[in-house]
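By convention, the token line describes the chain's fold. To illustrate:
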Amino acid sequence: MVRRALIILSALASAGLACSIFLGGPAYPDPPVPVSTDAGTGLQSAFQDAMENAAQTGTLTVELTESELTSFLQSKLAEMIDPPITQAQVTLRDGALQVFGTVQTGIFVANVSLTAQFSVDQNGQPQINITQAEYGPFPAPSELTDALGALLRETLTGTFGPAAVGFRLENITIADGKLTLTGRIK
């Protein structure tokens, strides 16, 4: 009888460890941002096309969509061994870029969001100002905010890095599902 009770308790404890506890958090965008491999890989070609056009006009304009940025970010996260978030979604609305994702720490799972605004410094470099970060029902820990901020910087600068030679960024605008980068050929 005691042995049977121990087996049952052991089975219940093992089942309990296999479960996760969802902490909630910010809701994902509805409807979800569409993801495609073509959209993610198209960013480099969009910059190359814009550079070719800029050679004629002297002005470079690149427009990126929520789908392109979400697809690109998801492909970057898929390359990581231990990504800071999974199931990433990017929205571009009201002058801000917002990243949604899911984080699992031990048995705890939470939705997260990070809101950032962009500007350009006097050297033509993009600046990211994180205005809000949520982890489940709590403010996001600085480690998560730092990791997501670095990932955003890499995503933004990595997309136009090879095309940036001879280019000076002047403005970043976010509105109506689009992030627009404008600049001039040096």
